[in-house]
Amino acid sequence: MDIYLPIAEISVNALVIVGLGALVGFLSGMFGVGGGFLMTPFLIFYGIPPAVAVASSAPQITGASVSGALAHWQRGGVDVKMGLVLIAGGLIGATMGSGLFRLLQNLGQIDVTISLVYVIFLGTIGGMMLKESGTALLDKRSGRRRPAVPRRHNPLIAALPWRTRFYKSGLYISPLAPFFLGMAVGTLTVIMGIGGGFIMVPVMIYLLGMSAAVVVGTSLFQIVFVTAATTLLHAINSQTVDIVLAVLLLIGGVAGAQFGARAAQKLPGEQLRFALSIVVLLVAIRLLVGLTWRPDEIFTVYGP
Questions:
Q1: Which UniProt keywords are present, listed alphabetically (predicted)?
Q2: Measured CA distances, 199 to 7, 56, 72, 186, 239 (Å)
């Protein structure tokens, strides 16, 4: 069933778009990530303009994050004070990112920039994940156990001024650290169409030293508000949000996440992280090929 996307100005198969949403939702449920960092590249591969793919992923991420945030809220797994600081930084970062997005769009460089940022970003993250998960698999096979990493915040973060207590997170640090973290993730949310949870969660644990009990819930709490603001900024400034595309992705994503969560229960964590790293690196390679490969015929003339 083909439908017309008014913003993208192309016709697509609705079942294919729902299927892409379901695939990313499945991966999200299986690996415990937001999925936006895979959704945007998959849409680009299908032929959706990168700017529209980025902007239309944001409402899908918002909708998919609400249920998770509510679940963590009900069990007390959200540090509201920390979340509000992250949101404040995220909103400023999203505003800055929106201005940069609009500037690159006016210069005609937004599509190349999005693809290039994804190549660098996914290549780096995928490589780190592959190394970590591969080492974990080898350790498990050989019976070695790595010592647990103590939970403590970075000395540079501890030196920042205006320290305050975040009771649920078990921290006594400056709010500047989570504020700037939120700002960075907010900027990436606008440019890349990601929720940022797969960046924020490890930073919150290993740099800020937050309690693991509230990390995921606080991250989701921040994602809901920042991605909602991102959607609004894209709709007003760049006008690249295709609501038809976003609804189709959301339908598929919600359904796929349920199956992914069930599948995750049957596989060990190390194997899941290793498989995700391979997927991430393959996506980065495919984007890199699209940026560097030159067809034999740049122009094609069709006869009458």
A1: Cell membrane, Membrane, Transmembrane, Transmembrane helix
A2: 30, 21, 19, 11, 27
- Cα separation values, 139 from 53, 128, 142, 144, 274, Å: 39, 17, 5, 5, 13
Cβ neighbours for 201, distance < 8 A, ≥ 6 positions apart? 215, 216, 219
pLDDT digits over 255-272, tens only? 776 676 666 566 665 676
Q: Which of 281, 232, 253, 219 is nearest to 78 (CA)?
A: 219
In one-letter notation, the amino acid at residue 259 is F
Domain ranges of the chain: 2-292
Helix axes 269-292, 36-46, angle to 10 degrees: 40
* Residue 103 three-state SS: helix
pLDDT tens-digit readout, 2-26: 777 777 667 778 888 888 888 777 7
DSSP assignments along 21-58, one per residue: HHHHHHHHHHHTS--HHHHHHHHHHHT--HHHHHHHHH
CB 27 within 8 A of CB 260: yes
The rounded mean pLDDT for the chain is: 76
Separation CA 161–CA 180 (nearest Å): 14
State the amino acid at position 291 in one-letter form. L
Convert the pLDDT of each residue in 17-56 to its tens digit: 888 888 777 776 666 565 667 788 888 888 888 888 888 8
Q: Which H or E element spans position 168?
A: none
pLDDT recorded at residue 3 = 76
Q: Which two tokens stand for residue 218?
A: 């606080």
